[in-house]
Amino acid sequence: MAVQLTEADIVHTFEVLAGLGAMSGRFAAQRITDQELAELRALHFEMLAAHARRDLSIYYRLNALIHDGINAAAKNPVLAAAYARINARVQSLRFRT
């Protein structure tokens, strides 16, 4: 069954995602390994190339991988699970906007 979200639900969900993303970024900045950072940089450059080609499906896939990588680098499984659960609520909206 698809989740029906009101405009307020969407705004509130993105507010929470922004907060969780900021927290992941803060933790990742403290805990990331050189290898993880190199992988995120490579994904970022691939994402920029996809944007330049206007290949939105690749762009969004790479963007999601970058967010997953930041969450993994934060090394907080509770935070990563919360982000994934809330992000799943609005994932389809990203492709429609």
Descriptive labels:
97 residues; mainly alpha; 86% helix
What does this structure look like?
This protein has 97 residues and is mainly alpha-helical. Helices cover 86% and strands 0% of the residues. It has four helices and no strands. The chain has helices spanning 7-31, 34-52, 56-74, 77-96. The radius of gyration is 14 Å and the shape is flat. The model has no long low-confidence stretch (mean pLDDT 91).
Summarize the SSE layout with pairings:
Blueprint: H1 7-31, H2 34-52, H3 56-74, H4 77-96
Helix pairs in contact: 1-3, 1-4, 2-3, 3-4
Q: Give the assembly state of these chains.
A: single chain
Please state the average pLDDT score: 91
Radius of gyration: 14 Å
Question: What is the percentage of strand-forming residues?
Answer: under 5%
Stretches with pLDDT under 50, minimum 5 residues: none
Distance between the termini: 22 Å
- Helices and strands: which structural class? mainly alpha
Q: Please give the largest β-sheet.
A: none
Level of helix content?
over 70%
Number of helices: 4
| Outline type | flat
How many strand segments?
0
Series of secondary-structure elements, N-terminal to C-terminal: HHHH
